[in-house]
Fold these 2 entries.
Entry 1:
Amino acid sequence: MKTLTIVGGAVIGLSCALRAAESGWEVTVYEPDQTCAASRVAAGMLGIAGESRTGEDAYLAFAEQAMSRWPAFLERLGDDRIVAASSSLMVGVDSADVGELTMVADWLRGRGHPVEPLTGKEIRILEPAVSSRIRSGFRAGGELAVDNRRLLQVLSDRAAEAGVRTVRSQVTDLADVRGDQVVLAAGVNSALLSPDLGVYPSKGEVLRLGWATGALPPPEHVVRGRINGRAVYVVPRHDGVVVGATQYDGGDDRLPVAGGVADLLSDAIELMPSLREYRLLSAEAGLRPATPDGMPLIGRVDDRTVVATGHGRNGILMSAITAELVAETLAGKTIDNPSIDAGRLSWATQ
Ligand SMILES: Cc1cc2nc3c(=O)[nH]c(=O)nc-3n(C[C@H](O)[C@H](O)[C@H](O)COP(=O)(O)OP(=O)(O)OC[C@H]3O[C@@H](n4cnc5c(N)ncnc54)[C@H](O)[C@@H]3O)c2cc1C
């Protein structure tokens, strides 16, 4: 049996490990400690409309492909507590916010993405906790959210059941790693092991709030708002919500900043006033593994090494498709996908 070593055991590494083990590889994952992984900090939205920026057509196309892999992925994982929401509402307060949302909705619609316009009243019928100040928005049907911590636990369990071995230590040099093939999936730390990839940290903060007796229950949808020009989202959990997220390119420490936490709290409460009564469970920061053009790096860089990193703001969404593309690369197949451009990867490794 051929041996595969995966460096990094969070959402990307574990998804690749499970898929490779099911394709007949003997897999070992090196993962020292997942506590600081972006995969744990994340909010868990499978966001296409919410995370694609107007004009990023290639990104939108890849995000849609990524989403199309989720039904089968969820079925394989077989755990009905992973899904946290089944669709998303995008809402705005002032005329500038609404204007911005309309532009995004038009762009999405023009590319065949399902968008359902909603008045403020219709939004409050779907989500009674949304502020009466919300003027309008749209529903992005089928844009799920998952409980990313539950997902990590289930992925880890399924990988172990499929025979994946985990070594609790950090890799300091890819040359020291044994295995016929190696997959680099160390998130932002991929830059330390392979600096030429150009992966850099994009820091983001999130808050976790717990439902308190007497308060309105958590929403059923992901609610993404533009409040006073800033983006904020509220993602349901069965016992509370995740509020996010700030973005500071280049920030490389994992401590939340007071100002970021204050903005998130005030914007979330403006979006959904009942959150004022929730308990503040945590404020955390994580490092998204970003790339200069925003697209992930998935593909072969030499005879023994395949990279699966640079997933930026959408690594949870892109986990299933990444595992599939890595398995195909390991099997020697040529990958036909807009995110994989051999020229780009060879540029990155020059
Ligand atoms: C605030 C915030 C909110 C986000 N929200 C979302 C969201 O809603 N939806 C979404 O799709 N994405 C979201 N993301 C992005 C998503 O979290 C990342 O794209 C994704 O988690 C990247 O996964 P990864 O496995 O590549 O990296 P990570 O999750 O960072 O994991 C890398 C792993 O590699 C291990 N490692 C590092 N160095 C070594 C080494 N030398 N040897 C061995 N192991 C090593 C680490 O311990 C870590 O466990 C968010 C990110 C942030 C910060």
Entry 2:
Amino acid sequence: MTAPNSAQLPLPRLRPMRAADLDVLLAHEQAMFGSEAWSRESYLDELADTELRYYLVAENADGVLLGSGGLMTIGETAQILTVGVLPAARRHGLGRVLVRALITEARRRGASEVLLEVREDNLAARKLYEAEGFANLGRRRGYYDRGRVDAVTMRYAI
Ligand SMILES: CC(C)(COP(=O)(O)OP(=O)(O)OC[C@H]1O[C@@H](n2cnc3c(N)ncnc32)[C@H](O)[C@@H]1OP(=O)(O)O)[C@@H](O)C(=O)NCCC(=O)NCCS
């Protein structure tokens, strides 16, 4: 029997993000993240910090980039910094694959918990994180959009 949705998308390949991926990623950045979109400079700064940060991309068998994720680990606490799947590749389980890969990396780095912040109005992402075992921890009032949108903080215990 085939798992739901898996038939349409062959298993993605995961690999570390490189600066050469940024042209493709940045072309979708605004549409994917809106007011939370990052600049090339921000990404380059993040990629340079390999000690604390871990960024990966998912691509299909033809090397077409489908999504990305990023993690920061300090001591026993890791934080998911970003997860994004290109619109055409959504709802095929790739978000799950990326979140699981980030948790695996957090565990490998010795973290005992993974935290994240997500916009309260981002129901797709909140559902994804809940489905992957994250629990609501609290709320940061007015964290996004110059005070207009709250962040929900979530925690996964490793
Ligand atoms: C959130 C996001 C990463 C999900 O990626 P995805 O590949 O579509 O997610 P998946 O296919 O792995 O979905 C896993 C589960 O999450 C939930 N989910 C995902 N998208 C959803 C949506 N639009 N509505 C409701 N639930 C959703 C579902 O429970 C889903 O399981 P199901 O398909 O079996 O019902 C994607 O929508 C995205 O890139 N959004 C823009 C960027 C963003 O908001 N990132 C997160 C904040 S950093």
